[in-house]
Amino acid sequence: MIREPFEINSAHERLTRPLTIIVPVYGRATTLYRFLADFRQFASRDAFLRLIVAATEEEKYAISSYIQEKMTNEFHSGQVTTVTCRNPFSRGDCLNKGIQAVAYDDDLFFVSDVDLYLTEALFKRIRLFTDENSLF
User: Fold this and answer.
1) For site-directed labelling of 18, which of 5, 47, 48, 70 has its Cα 20 to 30 A away?
2) Distances in Å between the alpha carbon of 25 and those of 46, 92, 105?
């Protein structure tokens, strides 16, 4: 999608930049559900925070069902997305599909693992210290 470039003129604007967390996952349902519960705490207060879960077709259905059943009322529309990567699981393919699913070319994205504990400070650091076209 193409839109006007996101210009940053203040720290407040940096803190409200759209941020997408990309999580490739395979065979870690219990840990993913803990991660989703953590994400839910922050997403309910931050409309600019998004999550893309990249999983194989066989796992995508269970993950999507869990999100639909347990968390739909707690997220803004489009805040959590699942994408399908090839089977057998390929982390590189999942990352590629996740990155392709980021809403806009100039949105920030952060590749995570389900073992990472999310904190508000993490999102704040990513937004404040990431410049355009850079890796964090």
Assistant:
1) 70
2) 23, 11, 23
Q: Tell me: the pLDDT tens digits for 80-108?
A: 889 999 889 899 999 999 999 997 777 88
Q: Sheet harboring 108-111: ordered strands across?
A: 80-85, 49-56, 19-24, 108-111
Instruction: Indicate whether this model's pTM tops 0.85.
Output: no
The two tokens of residue 106 are 């100039």
Q: C-alpha angle with apex 123: 122 to 125, nearest 5 degrees?
A: 65
List the structure tokens of 132. 């355009």
Distance CA 21, CA 15 (A): 15
Residue tagged 């997305």 (tokens): 81
**H helices of the chain, where?**
11-15, 29-43, 57-71, 91-100, 120-129
